[in-house]
Design a protein that fits this description.
This protein has about 375 residues and is an alpha/beta fold. The chain folds into two domains: about 240 residues, Type I PLP-dependent aspartate aminotransferase-like (Major domain) (Aspartate Aminotransferase, domain 2), CATH 3.40.640; about 120 residues, Aspartate Aminotransferase, domain 1, CATH 3.90.1150. It has 13 helices and twelve strands. The strands form three sheets. The protein has a seven-stranded mixed β-sheet with strand order 1-9-8-5-4-2-3, sandwiched between helices. Strand 2, helix 4 and strand 3 form a beta-alpha-beta unit. The longest helix has 19 residues. The protein binds pyridoxal-5'-phosphate. The site of pyridoxal-5'-phosphate has 14 residues, from helix 3 and helix 4.
């Protein structure tokens, strides 16, 4: 007997939109002011209230990281410590400034940056460290800040996965040096594409506000009044990185729904933990889902013979899976033959498998996924 085709596909991730977002976009289209104006200002205001500190919106998370680094004065000849196990966006944002991303190893239990490993990679040129809040967890963030303080490094947090996560009772972005978020289609909240930088550093904020509008000084205030600058000065390299009203309108509605959506993500991750913990070959990340709002749900599978085949078998059951991430130190652009080895990253990578997680997934879906995964591992 040939197995029947599963009737629905359980997607790895997806945008989760309600009629509110659709109506908000229609409102912007009706007003015929699509660029950066009052909706962006309102979204920044709402985000600033959410974080308890100023937020500047940009066109995506990669741009947020790029501008944060540039505003901290990082560029040609500088080095930035960053885990190899991250999306290539973190590396590209660093190399876009002219600086060199220095690939670091991770902690096995959380896949977050290991500052003790980073310490061995310090040089005279090291200017910053970029912890990546893998899957939504922050790992030993206090240890990373203490390490950065000892060595006079800026801390640029790649918090693309961690929108809403709390650390010691405080929201990521609400404390520390500089945090960068992504609102791409599948992140914890979306504005279509989009991102923001959150910091208390007034100089960094003002540099980013100008740099996102091609360096046109004080253009942000003008645009929030429905105007723009006709005569101006430019003193630094800028980029076309501002957010549009269409994006901000989506983001504003998503932010209103965030408490529901984040609760769903947390509930689903707890369900996964419950069903998978204790399995002899499946290892879950060490996360407290009362504090962490998970962006992805990752497991490590020991004695994995062929991950491709496992993924194909799950797909045949209607379950889409992913791999977060192929390490960056193996990429042609970032390969460094002189670099110290990355033993944990190299041991963990072949074991990684990301299971579906998004705000429209149900507990029943999670039950099905876990049952099918375990069945494939016997
Ligand atoms: C999504 C993501 C980014 C970049 O965000 P974009 O909005 O896609 O540019 C950066 N770092 C990590 C770890 C991400 O997952």
């Amino acid at each position: 007997m040939t197995p029947s085709k599963p009737e629905k596909l359980i997607r790895l991730s997806k945008s989760c939109l309600s009629t509110a977002e659709k109506q908000a976009v229609m409102g912007v289209l009706d007003r015929e002011f699509l660029g950066m104006g009052v909706e962006v200002q309102q979204f920044e205001q709402a985000l600033s209230e959410f974080f308890g500190r100023p937020a500047v919106c940009v066109t995506n998370g990669t741009a947020a990281v790029h501008l944060a680094l540039q505003a901290c004065g990082i560029g040609q000849g500088d080095e930035v410590l960053v885990p190899s196990l991250t999306y290539v966006a973190s590396f590209q944002a660093i190399s876009a400034t002219g600086a060199k991303p220095v690939a670091c190893d991770i902690l096995r239990e959380t896949c977050n940056l290991d500052w003790r490993d980073a310490e061995h990679r310090l040089t005279q040129r090291t200017k910053a460290i970029m912890p990546v809040h893998y899957a939504g967890g922050v790992g030993d963030l206090d240890g990373i800040y203490a390490f950065a303080n000892r060595h006079g490094l800026r801390v640029i947090e790649d918090a693309a996965h961690a929108f809403g996560t709390k650390h010691m009772g405080k929201r990521v972005g609400g404390f520390g040096d500089v945090a960068c978020f992504s609102f791409d289609g599948i992140k914890n909240i979306t504005s279509g594409e989009g991102g923001c930088v959150v910091t208390d550093d007034a100089l960094v904020l003002s540099k980013i506000r100008d740099a996102r509008l091609l360096g046109v000084e004080k253009d942000t205030e003008k645009r929030y009044m429905g105007q723009r600058s006709w005569e101006f000065d430019v003193t630094a390299q800028g980029w076309r990185y501002h957010m549009s009203n269409i994006m901000a309108a989506i983001g504003l509605e998503q932010l209103k729904r965030f408490s529901d959506m984040s609760f769903t993500r947390q509930r689903l991750a707890r369900r996964y933990d419950e069903l998978l913990r204790g399995h002899s070959r499946i290892h879950t990340l060490s996360m407290d889902y009362d504090a962490v709002v998970p962006h992805i749900y990752v497991v490590c599978i020991s004695a994995m013979r062929d991950r491709n085949i496992l993924q194909q078998q799950l797909m045949a059951q209607g379950i889409q899976t992913g791999i977060h991430y192929q390490p960056n130190h193996v990429l042609s652009l970032y390969r460094d033959p002189q670099a110290l080895p990355l033993p944990v990253t190299e041991a963990v990578f072949p074991e990684l498998l990301t299971l579906p997680l998004h705000a429209d997934l149900t507990e029943q879906d999670v039950d099905t996924i876990c049952m099918q995964l375990k069945a494939q591992l016997t």
